Amino acid sequence: MNNIKKLTNDTSQVFNAVQDSLAIIDTEFNVININTTYLKLLKKDAKEVIGKKCYAVLRGSRCSTEKCPLKKIIRIPKVIEIETEKCFPDGSRVPLILTATPLISDRGKLTGMIQSFKDITDFKLSSKKLEIVLDEVIKALSVTVEVRDPYTYGHQERVAQISEKIARKMGFPENRVKALWMAATIHDVGKIYVPSEFLAKPTQLTEIEFAVIKTHSTVGYSIIKNIDFDLPIAEIVYQHHEKMDGSGYPLGVSGEKILIEARILTIADVVEAMSSHRPYRPALGLDKAIEEIKKNRETFYDPDVVDICLQVIKEKGVKFFAA
Ligand SMILES: [Fe+2]
């Protein structure tokens, strides 16, 4: 008997010592037990919570909806893990990972669930900090190339802004817009290997000089291909001079074999480059750029992206595109 009492006490101590928030809820939505960490998160004591309906005292954003983890477990008794937030009456929010584990009796009957919350505030802050650092590294890499090629200073940044506008208009999810922004910001990074005399040459380039400049998309790909991005940033850079009819470089791939992000970047690159000054010519102007993408719509450029780009031009005006 003493052993059972000790074990019960030990179990209760462990339940309360766990740093994650834990609550046991039965299939009638009654809170059977709740640990100290969870009570601290709720700023309540046990008497206010135990025996009450979970949706009345735990105030989850999924309460009384079909997303309620207990309702889901009643339908299909399996472990659920989701990222969520707990909102408080004072307007504060705590980001959490919610895990709901079904409780099954010896007879195989569902009796309730253990709900646990892991506070991921610190993790979110570290991720945000890392994201800011990565953005700064990307911008630093972009400036490194442009310092060697002052005539195109700001080119990549403007191409990134144009690409971002097109991607948003096309309904890209946030992570893909961000990946495209990153790729566009460093799309010419491979020019670091091109002699700066070629980049700043005020007269027409020779065939050999142009061939050297053309290596920049492959070199750019090699520089960033080992960075473990979740999205194909290196591949977008690699393909940013490919054309729809296969007449581009370096691989001469065509149509949908070119990533949609690269097809957007190609058009943004052309429009920005034609709208801005170059060492060997004054700015051709936005009208010439519009003429170019309309003339080669389908042959060189993705027709849908051209149409969206024309809409962006209409909405944003000349200033947005030219240096
Ligand atoms: Fe390029």
Descriptive tags:
binds fe (ii) ion; 2 domains; 15 helices; Hypothetical protein af1432; Beta-Lactamase; 5-stranded antiparallel sheet; alpha+beta; 323 residues; single chain
Explain how this protein is built.
The radius of gyration is 29 Å and the shape is elongated. The longest helix is centred in the middle third of the chain and has 28 residues, at 121-148. The protein has helices spanning 2-17, 36-42, 46-49, 54-57, 69-75, 121-148, 155-169, 174-185, 196-199, 207-213, 216-224, 233-238, 260-275, 286-295, 303-316, and strands at 21-26, 31-34, 80-87, 93-104, 110-119. It has two domains: 2-119, Beta-Lactamase (2-Layer Sandwich), CATH 3.30.450.20; 123-320, Orthogonal Bundle (Hypothetical protein af1432). 29% of the residues are buried. The protein has 15 helices and five strands. Bound molecules: fe (ii) ion. Fe (ii) ion is lined by residues 187-188, 216, 240-241.
